[in-house]
Amino acid sequence: MKEDPGYYEYWPYENRPKIEWPNGAKVAFWVAPNIEFYELNPPDNPFRKPWPQPNPALPGYTSRDWGNRVGHMRQMQLLEKYGIRGSISLSTALCDHHPEIIESCKERQWEFFSHGIYNTRYTYGMTEAQEREMIKDSIESIYKHTGQKCAGYLAPALSHSENTLDLFAEVGTELFGDEAGFYSCDLFHDDQPTPINLRSGKRFASIPYSLEMNDTIAYLVQKTTPRRYGKELKDNFDRLYTEGSESGTIMCIPTHNYQVSNAHRIKAYEEALEYITGHSDVWVTTGKEIAQYFLDHYYDLVKEDIKTKKKKYDNIR
Amino acid sequence: MTTLGNDYLQYSKRSYGMDHDRYEWSMLQNRKAITWPKGKKIALWVNVGLQFFPLNQKGIPFKVPGGMTKPYPDLRHFSLRDYGNRVGIYRLLKAFDTFNITPTFAMNTRLAERTPYLTATIKERNNEIICHGYDMDKLHYGGQNIEEEKDLVKRALDGLRKLTEQEIKGWVSPAKNESENTPDILAANGITYFCDWANDDLPYNFKTSKGDLSAMPLTTELDDYYIILNNLHSAESWAEQVDDAFEFLLHESKTSGGRILSLNIHPWVLGQPHRIQYLEKVLDKLGSHEEVWSASASEILSTWKTQQ
Hints:
The complex is a heterodimer of chains A (317) and B (308).
Chain A: E1 27-35, H1 58-81, E2 87-90, H2 94-97, H3 99-107, E3 111-114, H4 128-146, E4 152-153, H5 164-176, E5 183-184, E6 194-195, E7 205-206, H6 215-221, H7 226-243, E8 249-256, H8 266-277, E9 282-284, H9 287-297, H10 299-316
Parallel strand pairs in A: 1-2, 1-8, 1-9, 2-3, 4-5, 5-7
Antiparallel strand pairs in A: 6-7
Chain B: E1 42-50, H1 75-98, E2 103-107, H2 109-114, H3 116-124, E3 128-131, H4 146-164, E4 170-171, H5 182-188, E5 193-194, E6 204-206, E7 213-215, H6 224-230, H7 235-256, E8 259-265, H8 267-270, H9 276-287, E9 292-294, H10 297-306
Parallel strand pairs in B: 1-2, 1-8, 1-9, 2-3, 4-5, 5-7
Antiparallel strand pairs in B: 6-7
Helix pairs in contact in B: 1-9, 7-9
C-alpha cells in the first residue's frame, strides 16, 4: 500500500495559467446522471456487503428499481428542457436489462461512460487481470449498444484498486487508441482538470465530478432537505462562476434517478438548473467534451506549469 | 490479500428485464394513462401505521427502525411509541374528519389485541384496515424458517380479521422487510395486495406461487418517520416536501394520466403537539383540492384494476 496514489502533483489554486473555455465561458457545466443496475442477490464480496439486510433487501433494491422505472424519464425530460445533454455514468449491464433507457439517451446524443458492469460488483479483491476484463467488458458493451468509444470512467460504487486508472486508460487504448479511455471521474482533489500520471504515459485527465454536489451524498449521507440541496447547487455555481473569470472552472452535478427525480425533490433541482443555465457565460457540455478540450488546448501548458513550480519549490526545500 | 473467484465476473442474470422473475420490467411513462373517478388527477392514499413495539425486542435479524435502541428496559422508546396509540392517533383522527380525508390503517395485530378501545374506534369508522404484521419486532426476513413465517402470517391475519371483522386484503410488512417466501405466503392467506415493494408510482402485478398479488406504491420517501426521524428534517420541511411532491405529480398527471400521492404516517411522529399543525396544513390543502380524490388503498387499486 502507498501513502499517496501518485496520480498528480501538488498544484496550488492560485497563479495558474488561465484556462479559457469555448466562447469565453467561465464555467464548464455538466450533469452526470448515474444510470445504475443493482442486483437483488449479488455474489458476496469479502470487502463490502452489497446490502444491509439478508436477501431480499427490499429498501435498497426497490429504491434503485424505482429510479429506472419512474425516475429516469423525469430527469431526462428536465435536462432536455434546459438544453443539457447528460453524461451517463453507466452500469453497463443495464444495456442488456433496460435497452429502452439506453435508446432514449442515444436519441438525445447523451454521452455514455463506464461505471462498471453492476453497481453491486466491487473492484475490491479483483486481480489485475480480473479488473482489466471487467473494464474491457464495460467499454465493449458501451460500444456494442451505443456505438460510442468510452472516454470516461467512474469505478463501480467508487470501488478502486491501485491499478484502476491505469487499466482503464490501457484498455481504452487497446480497443480504440487515443479515442477512448482518457478521463477519470474518480478523483475529487480540484475544481479544474488535472493531468494524470499513468504508467503508460498516456495523455489522460481527471475531470471534476464533485462528490459534494452528488445528490446521493446530499440526500443519503448529509440527509439534506431538497430546497437546501437546490440552494447548495446555486451557491456552488455562483462561486465557480465568479472564479471562472480568472481561469475557467468546472461544475458537475452527479445525479441518480432514484434520488433527484423524486416528486418532492425535482422542483428544487429544476430551479437550480434554470438558474445555472440562465447565465450567459456557461458552457453547457459533457464530461468527454471537457476532457477533450483540456487535452487539446491546456494539458501541455498545465503540465509545464506544474513542473516549473515543482522544480522551483523542490529547490527551496 | 483475499482474492475473488472468477465467478465474480460471471453474470447469469444479465439479460432483458429484471434479475428475478417476480414482475415484468416496465417504465411508468410507457403505460396506459389511468383515470381516477370524476376525472380527478391525484389519488391521495393516507396510510396510517398503527404499531406496537415490544419492550422485550429481540431484533431478529435486525433492530426494527423506530424500535428500542437502549439496553432493556428502554422505557424512553417504548413509551414514546405508545404515546402515538394513546394520544397522537386521536389528533390524527380529528384531522382526517376535519379535512374530509379517507385514511387507510395499517395495523399490527398485537396492537389490535392490546388496545380494544382503539380497535373498536378504528373499526367503527369503516375505514379500510390492512395488516402490518404481528408486531414491529416480528420481522419477515431472508433466511427465515418457512414454517415459522407461515405461522406468523397466519397468526397476524387470523387475529386481525377476527378482531376487526374486516376481510383484510392488504399487507405491509414491519419495516417493509420480507423473506424470499413472503409474497407466496401472503397470497396463500387471502392477501390480494401488498405495499413492501416501493419501486413504482402505480400498482403492478407481482407473481407468486399462488397467483398474482398487486404491488401498491407506498413510498418511503415521504414517510414521516423517514423524513423527520431518519433524515432529521423539521415537520415544517416534511409539509413543504409533500407539497412540492403534490404539485409535481399534479403537473405530470395533466399529460401522463392519474397519479398516486401516498403518505405513510405514524401517530407517534406527526401526532406530537408541535408537529400536528403541519399534517393539518397538508390535509387542509389536499382535502379541499378539486383535483384530489382521497381514497382507501383498496379503492385506488380496484380503480386501477378495472383499467388494465
